[in-house]
Structure prediction request, 707 residues.
Amino acid sequence: MTLSAGQLWEALGGSSLQTALTCPSSLCKGTSLTLSQSKLFSFALYEKPALLSRIQNRGDRGKVFYSFFKLILNNGRYTFLIKSNERKYPIMKKTLSLILALLLGISLLGCSNSSQNTSSGADAAGASAASEPTATPEEANAERIYGRVSSLNGTSVTLALLESSQEQENGKPPAKPDGQASGEGQNDMEPPQMPDGQMPGEGQSGSEPPQMPDGQIPGEGQKGNEPPKMPGAMTDTGETMVLNLQETAIYEGEVQHSADELAEGDILLLTMSGDQLLFAERTEIPGDPQPMGQGGPGDNGQVPGGGNQVNQGTSANTLSEDTSVSGETYTSVGDDENVLRIHGAIVSLSNITVDKSAGASSNAEQGDFYGMNTALLATDGAQVTIENAIVTSSAQNGNGIFSYGSGTSVTVKDTSITTTADNSGGIQTTGGGATYAENLTVSTAGNSSAAIRSDRGGGTVQVSGGSYESSGYNSPAVYSTAAISVENALLTAHNSEALVIEGKNSIALTNCTVSGSMGAQTSASGSENVHAVMIYQSMSGDAEIGTSSFSMTGGSLTGKVGDLFYITNTHCLLELSGVTLIQEDASGALMRICGNSASRGWGTAGSNGAQVECTLRGQTLSGNILVDTISSLTLDLTENSDFTGTLNIYENAQGGTPVSGNITLTIEEGSTWTLTGDCTLSTLINYGTIHFNGFTITLADGTVLAG
Prediction:
C-alpha cells in the first residue's frame, strides 16, 4: 500500500497549507509522494517554521511527520543543501530515501490498522531503496545562500555573500577533533551509522521517531520550533549578487515583507535553483549570539561590531616596530591595499606624504569597518602621532586616516586630508579606537564620505580647531557611531545633512560653526526626511541600541533645506545653550520628532517613534516643533530661554498606536514662550511668561488656555 500525495497533503492542512507555503500545485496531486516532491515540500516548510507548529498539532500523523522532518533538519548529514562560496555538499540520497519512505509508511497509521501500516512502511522502504525517483533539475540544483544587503536601488538589491567560518578552503567540512576527516572510512554518500551499526530508524517501533540520547524528540524544546542555525560565525566571501525583488515576498517568521522594507545590513537567506529564486527570508546571521540591530564593541571574543571576521587587506608599507619617521613619501595603487599601516607600534610621523591614487576595494564593509584600502591605517593597539602631513586618496573606500580597534590611538595635528571617491571619509574611527585631531583641513568629495566619520564598533573622537568639509550625498560633516566632541571648528556639508547620530552615541559641539544643505536625492535618507541634524537608530547593527546624546554650546547651526532637527526611532537627550540657530527654509520645522515609514529598516512602522528630552539653557529659538502621536517630547526652558513658535501633536502617518504624554513643556522662571499659532500639548508647567498673541493652547484633558 502506498500513501498518495493528496492523502498526506490533506492530513497536514490541505489547500490552505499550500497557499501559505506557496508550493506548486503538483505537490497535492498524483498517486504517490516522490522523493522530489518530499524535498520540495520540506524546503517550503523550512522557510515557514511557524507552520511546523500547526502541523505538529494535527493529530498523530502530524506529530509523526513533524518529528521525522525535524530529524532530517537537525542532523547535519541529512541537511538538504548547504552552499558556501560555490561549494556544494551532496544530499545523502540513499539514507534520505529510507527516512522519507519510513516517514510515509508511519504516516499511514491514521488510515489503516497498525499491522497494515507497518507492512506498508516496510514495502515503501524497500521500494524507495530499490528505485529512487529522479529530482527535477530545479530541485536538484537548489542551493541555500546567505547574503548581507550592501546596497539598495529601488527593488534592486546587492548582497555581499556570506559563508561559514568553520568550512575549509577545499570545500570539505571541518575535521573531527581526533584529526579524522568527516566521513573518513565511510561511503561518501551514506551518513555515519548508529553506535550499534543500525541505520537511523532500523529496528525501531514504526509508530515512534528515533529518540535522542536523553529521550527527547529531535527539535523538541527549541525556541519557536525553528530549525537549528548553522554553526560558526559567517564571514564575507568577497562575492556579490544582484537581485531584482520587485515580485518577491520576503518572509520574516509569519510576516511578509517587500523589497522596499529592506535596509542595508539586513541578512537574507535565499533558496536558489540556478538563477531562479525559490524562497527569500530576512533572518539573523547563523551562529551570531547578538540579536540583529546590536552593534558596538563585541564581547565573548567577537570582533567589535557584530561578529564579522576582520579583513584589512594588504599594505604597501607597514611599520610594526617603535620608530620615528620624517619627510617620507608613501604611495599605493594596489587593490585592498593600505598605503601605510602602523601595526601595534608606537610611531611618530612628521612631514610625510601619503597618497592612495588607485586601487579598488573588493568589500565595502571591510573598508568601512576595519580599514581595508584606507590610505593610513593604525591598528592592533598602535599609538600614532602625526604632524604636518599631507594625506590624499582617490580610491573607493579610501578613507584618509583610520583608527581601528580597542587600544589603538591616533593623534594628528596640522595635517591636510583630501579624499575624492565614495565611502572615503576624512578621519575614520571604528572598533573602539581613538582619534585626537587638532587643526586639520579635511575635504571629502565622494558620496557616503563624512569628513569626521565613525562606523561599527565606534570609539572616541576629539577634534579641536580646523575645517571639515564634505561635498557628496549622504556625507555629513560629522557621522557619529562613537563618542565625538568638536570645539572651535568649521563643519560644512554642501550636499548632505550637517550632523548625524546613530544609536547609543553622541556629538558634543562647543563654539563650532555648522551648516548643512541636504537634498532629497534618490536612495538618501532625504527620501524619508530633509534636515540639517538627524538622530536615529538604523537597526543595521552598526550602532548599539540606547540613548543618543546631542549637545551644542555657543557657535551657530544653519539648516539650508528642510527641518533643522529630525529625530526618529530612538531615545535622545538634547541640550542647546547659547547657540545661534538659523533656518533658511521657512517651510521646514524647527524640530520634527516622529516615526518613519520603516522603508529603510528604521524600526517597525507604527511603533518607531522617538522619545526626546530637550533642555534649553539661555537659548533663543524660533520655529515650529512637531511631535507625532507615537513619539514624545519633554521640553524645559531654563536660564532665561526664549522660544518663539508653536508646539503641536499630529497623527502618526503609519497609523500607530498613540502614546501618552506626547508633549510636556516646562517654562522656568525668567524664560518666555511667544506663540505664533494655536498649539496642542499634553502637559504645561509654567513658572515663566507666555505671550499668547491671540492664539490658544489645548491640553490633553481638553483644557483650552488663552491670553
